[in-house]
Amino acid sequence: MWKKFAAGALMAATIAGAAHAEVTEVRMSKQFGLPYLPMIVIEAQNLIEKNAKAAGLDVKTSWTQRVGPAADMDALLAAQADFIGPGATTLATIYEKTVGTPQEVRALIAMQSMPFVLVTRNPNVKTIKDFTDKDKIAVPAVKLSGHALTLQMAASQTWGFEHYDKLDSMTITLSHADAASAVMGGGSEVNSHFASSPFYYYELAKPGIHQVLKSYDVVGGKHTNGVLIATKKFHDANPKICAAVIAAFNEANAYIKANPREAAQLYLTVTKDKNSLDDLQKMVADPDVEYTTTPMNVMKFVDFMHKVGRIKKKPASWKDMFFPEAHGLNGS
User: Fold this and answer.
1) ∠ at Cα 183 (178, 189), nearest 5°?
2) pLDDT tens by residue, 98-146
């Protein structure tokens, strides 16, 4: 995969250099759920094309939907996608692996601030202290995802750092959709789920399911969920495209804030979600949710990742993992 990526990047750079032009197609990759609402708005309103044209570029944007950060990263490193939107913990992991190499990867901007919410159908579980080996907690990726890391952070705060992995044996890897179905269905051993939006809304609306904790409480405030990632080679070769993408996200975020109902309708139309428009509008306008390009509390996750050995070398600042375009933001 790495060899294919290097060859693809070299070929792209050669073609760009020969033509003295930026790319004419921008390949965006998104995943599922409300974290990707800005991308849905951008695609529906052709905002990348619009902002690129204002910069004197004629481009088209192609969109691919992939399941999970692993598929996204494979696509980016194989030069099959130009921008992907995984979590901040994925950024920290891939940045450490690629920094200073021809395959270096960084984030252009943050995409949103959203909590992870731990829910359960076990009436005896009021806090994480109440979980036993009879409980199973679904996370997107055991030990690796931001959800799993947040659970470890909560455990370290509850029982002391040396017991940060106390709940790991109870976790199981499931997609958010499958986890929500398991918890709500009641017939599975999986009775708990550390969920992203909109899945925790679905679960909490069902009688018998309640919230155990929210990631904002663990981290100490709002935190970035997803970040927009690109390779340094693509970024450096396409400055006008990158500026157009940032402008598109800012425009989409402003639209969502000013028009939550219309944005919710777009989400319903594209995803075929079975929720009512009224319910989706409430989710989009939830005060816990902020569609913003400013990184929030990224270093809280990075610090913990370094402390538990997930990354060996800790960046000095969140700015190390982001391209210069983000450095003027009031990030953390």
Assistant:
1) 95
2) 999 989 999 999 999 999 999 999 999 999 999 999 999 999 888 878 8
What type of residue is 71? Answer: A
Residue 129 token pair: 């202290």
Query: Considering only CA atoms, which of 81, 82, 80, 74 is closest in space to residue 236?
Result: 82
139 - beta bridge partners? 173
- Name the class of domain 2-113+224-326: alpha beta
Answer whether CATH 2.60.370.10 is correct for domain 117-219.
Answer: no
Answer whether the bond into residue 287 is a cis peptide, omega within 30°: no
| Maximal CA-CA distance, the chain | 66
Enter the tokens of residue 100. Answer: 């200073």
Where in the chain does DSSP place strands (E)? 25-30, 60-65, 105-110, 117-120, 137-139, 171-173, 192-195, 210-214, 227-231
Domains 2-113+224-326 and 117-219 share a fold: yes
Domain segments of the chain: what residues? 2-113+224-326, 117-219
